[in-house]
Amino acid sequence: MYKLIAVDLDGTLLNDFGEVPEVNIEYIQKMMGRGVHVALCSGRSYVSLASFENLLGLNKPGCYGICFNGGIVYDAFSKEIINDIRMSRGLALALADEIKHVIGNLELGLVIYAGADLYAERGIETVYHYANKSGIPLTELESFSEIGQDVTKLVVRGENALLNAVFHKMSVAAANKCKMYFTAENLLEFIPPESGKGRGLYILAKKLGIPVAETIAVGDHVNDIDMVEAAGLGVAVANAVDPVKAAAAYVTRSDNNSGVIKEIAQRFLDIS
After folding, report:
1. Contacts of 19 (CB under 8 A, 6+ apart)
2. How crowded is the C-beta side of 54, counted as CA atoms within 13 Å?
3. pLDDT in tens, 120-129
4. Which of 60, 69, 105, 139 is the most exposed place for a label (fewest CB within 10 A)?
């Protein structure tokens, strides 16, 4: 019997309009009624996840979440941080300088998270749009060197073709220093090398006293691969990118618009 399910948000739990389909809400409630722990596992901040946890009823005692691509595991009720993985301030600033050099005058926006605090050096439209979507106040600085703490992640936002160029040019600078991957077509992220959704799943399962073999992980994008591989049952949604499907033990017939949680609940948890 599976006792913990970690569910990615964008492209998995949310439909193409950024909403949670009613059928997903219904079956998450049914899972919880059977004693199954459900945790959102996202690249977003726990601040950005709070409204979805409230909607789904995942804001009660005994509920947990995984955010920042596994960098932070937290209690969704008390907001206590269970685990917090960061890269050193020095490394983050060095990466930021290299990224800015690569970006040059391209219309790409670089932001840095230190926990739930969001920072940018200059206010271009793509940065403001990102901050608004995240629902997190943006602090604009003269220089990232004003950040006085270790860093959770760096994010570059912009058109996919430009981000691909940044990805290839940053491969050498980022090698063995951090993990770098796309979390959406318009988002390129840099996180600590020890971080990852799979690591977050391990930490939460241990906290709950649940064997990893009794966990399910569901995702659609490359940042979900390590948790899909780590879980007792790795699931890729029908709309997932091919590398996630290749890593998964099961690929759903349903996509993110059509009741993927219902399919998983009925097939693997015997919930009708």
Report:
1. none
2. 7
3. 987 666 787 7
4. 105
